[in-house]
Amino acid sequence: MVFEKIREIIAEQTGKDESEITLETNVKEDLDADSLDLFQIINDIEDEFEVSIEDPESIVTVKDAVDFVESHKED
Amino acid sequence: MIRSKIVATGAGIPDQVITNDDLAKIMDTSDEWITQRTGIKQRHISSGENLSVLATRAARQILERAGMDARDLELIIMATCTADYGTPCLACMVQKEIGADRAVAFDVTAACSGFLFATSVADKFLRTGVYKNALVVGGEMISKIVDWTDRSTCVLFGDGAAGVLLQTTEEEEGIMVEELGSKGDMYEVLTDGYTPAANAFNDVPPLDKMDFVHMDGRAVFKFATKKIVESVNRVLDQAGLTPEDIKYFIPHQANARIIDVAVSKLKIPKEKFYVNIERYANTSSASIPTALNEMNEMGMLQKGDKIVLCGFGGGLSWGTILITW
Question: Could you tell me which of A44, A60, B4, B322 has the fewest CB atoms within 10 Å of its CB?
Fold first, then answer.
């Protein structure tokens, strides 16, 4: 559920097909995303799941984002 | 009902142009990197003249176009956070240069939203009948407060001054609806020029070098994209208008990517947004009046056109003003 939503956010921001995005995908390197794309992805994830990602540098792969949300969203 | 309206615009922009390639000669950056992330291709940077020179140039052009004698000016408000001095204010320096010896002159500080705040203040003086006219200029020289060894911030900014002459009107025109806002609980995400409380009777160390611009880019990006959308929608609602009624939106030119996000979230055609960031970079409080002046010079603004000015920046602060031209 979290993964599907995050995949949708990343696909929309990077213009990639959802099928290209897996848990192991490195957002910047595999999807040609720059730092501002990552800003927007993190901003959208924060809004969608009502979490606050203090350290955007910690989000490298899709799994990093999914793990962060799953461990913080109940707070 | 008395309102205030813009009767003339003008600008004072430094002659020296610094391209992205020029920057790449003195730091590790590139035209491609800067263009992709910001939309900026070049900026105007002072070759030694301070901000009062640019603001005076703008003021003279505005008065000349309005056909107005400086001695008839009643109010001068400058929006800036980079004046030549801590005191006097920039407005007093310009007052002297243009010979507006009967005017009241002061500065307003609201960073990149400053022109909107200053315009709003002037509008109130005019609406209440205290004054009949006001010169409002946004002027900024960010080049003297950025760290030129920090490639993540210094490439973003440019210098300039631009503004308007406001006069009272009894017609249904001019400044119609506005919203100003402040979010001080986020002040730390965009700062410059911290001055420690050092004195002869404590041991606080004085600054050994200037405190330059610090910016949490992601926090500002998020704030800006959110506030533009919310504020523009509120102002349109309050005016009973829809985006179709608006001829042009003039956003603060901080980053083309911020404007792109705002455009897509507002679902307004991009052609309605005036963008000139590629030539000026972010000139803070000067960016909206610089854009407005360019559009006016090109004859893009016709009587009766509805235009929306929207800015955001340090404070944090934001503002939106709906004008019937």
Answer: A60
